[in-house]
Amino acid sequence: TAEIAEKEKRNSANSARSAVNLSLAAMAGVFTGLAFAAKYTAVGLALGLAALAMVWLRSGKGRLVFFLAAVLIVAPYLIKNAALTGNPIYPFFFAGKYWDADRSLWHGQPGTGLNWIQLLAAPWDATVWGLEGAIVSGHPPYSASLGPLLLILVPLVMLDRRGLKDRVGLPLGGILIVGAVGYFAWAAQLAFSVLLVQTRYLLSLLPFFAILAAVGFDALAKTLSGTPAPKVIAVLIGSALTLAAADSVFSFAKASPLAVMVGAQSESDYLADRLGLYQYAMQAVNELPPGSRIEFLWEPRSFYCSASVVCVPDAIADRWWHLRRAVSGAEAITGQWRAEGVTHVLIFWLKYQTGEHLMRAQMFDPFTGADWEELDRLAQNHMTVVKDLNGVYVLYQLNAE
User: Fold this and answer.
1) Which end of the chain is more exposed for a tag (fewer CB within 10 A), N or C?
2) pLDDT tens digits, residue range 214-229?
3) What is the rounded distance in angstroms from the CA atom of residue 294 to the CA atom of residue 337?
């Protein structure tokens, strides 16, 4: 009787443990699905979590629960995409609403990614040459200021190999798996297209790398134990984090709308300070007659567009290039615009010029000389200037037929 009771007790404990494990597997699947559904660029994180599930979930039932939970969470997003655009993973891989092969080429720019040397140097380049909101000439366009701590500390994990081996089956092992798989997924994106050479696509993985950096610091402290070096390094790291936090606070304070809220600054002046000539361009757009329809070229934004007019932003800055392939010349393009009810055109000339130079620097320039000639013909022969903002933004009115 005692043996039977003990066996039932063990079975009950095993069942409870199995139920908990399945619950955790389902929860992990839910969060993996949410990550991918939130943004495609979290694919590295999703793949890393899937790899971790395959390694840690020993039972086929646990793995099945994980993947089913992830798929069920993503499914509504994919179904919505399919219903609205005809492509469940719009705009990638398949055609869809307002999407074709030309637009896929523009949006993907395949074959323009980094070479093997640049891929190996990616952590260094992203850290040293990455600049928030800008690109350093002659270097890949990582466009973000990352700071040196991850670059310095993450590799130091290998200093304490014995400790790492002892803890690899614990959460640290999972962090290593997710971080490694996610990083290599990011590297594959870097190799595919220059448009994916951006540090922000690693954002979902940065918490994992931050933990590895902390482990690296711990390993360094163990290696240099008995010397004042760990304390000095800790002070330097603390100072770097403090300065970064202070910079964030000052940046937030500079952009704070508090002055507007208390009446010390007008909303229009605040927007002009923050948005520059874009604010004045939108003021000119909003002064147009009610019902006007404005087609934007090289301007992807349309916020602060008045409800009395219709603004059509150039979402991925390909409108002119796409029109040239689909419609052809300036006369035909003007005719199509009139048929669509377009009355005005806003051209962000500076963005067009910088975008042209940038594409050439990236070895991807799909424009031809005829494309630019037709744009000049459009501006000179088929439109009249309504507002010229220093040649940066120019608002035109379509000429009558």
Assistant:
1) N
2) 989 988 888 888 888 8
3) 10
* 102 CB burial (10 A radius; 0-12, 13-18, 19+): middle
Asked whether the predicted pLDDT for residue 279 surpasses 60, the reply is: yes
Q: How far apart are CA 365 and CA 379, in angstroms?
A: 22
Instruction: Enter the DSSP assignment of 190.
Output: H
Instruction: At 107, list the tokens.
Output: 């949006």
Contacts of 343 (CB under 8 A, 6+ apart): 288, 292, 293, 294, 397, 398
Pairing between β-strand 344-348 and β-strand 383-389 as defined by DSSP bridges: unpaired
Q: How far is CA 160 from CA 164, 215, 217, in A?
A: 6, 9, 10
Q: Which residue has the tokens 């670059």?
A: 151
Contacts of 189 (CB under 8 A, 6+ apart): 44, 113, 196, 201
Angstrom distance (rounded) from CA 56 to CA 173: 10
Q: Residue 1 and residue 7: Cα distance in Å, rounded?
A: 10
Neighbours of 114 (CB within 10 A): 21
How many other C-beta atoms are found inside a 10 Å radius of the C-beta of residue 18? 13
Residue 278 has pLDDT above 60, yes or no: yes
CB 324 within 8 A of CB 374: yes
Residue range 53-64, pLDDT digits in tens: 888 887 888 899
DSSP state of 291: T
Closest CA to 323 of 363, 379, 374: 374
Please give the C-alpha separations between residue 312 and each of 1, 139, 263, 339, in angstroms, as whole numbers. Answer: 79, 34, 33, 15
Which pair of structure tokens corresponds to residue 50? 């899937």
Distance CA 264, CA 64 (A): 59
Q: Identify the CA nearest to 135 among candidates 367, 357, 318, 365.
A: 357
Q: Can you tell me which residue has the tokens 């992990």?
A: 28
**Has this prediction a pTM greater than 0.90?**
no
Tens of pLDDT along 181-216? 999 999 999 999 888 888 989 988 999 999 999 989
The token duo for 368 is 């031809």
Is the distance from CB of 188 to CB of 105 less than 8 angstroms? no
Q: CA–CA separation, 78 vs 81, rounded Å?
A: 5
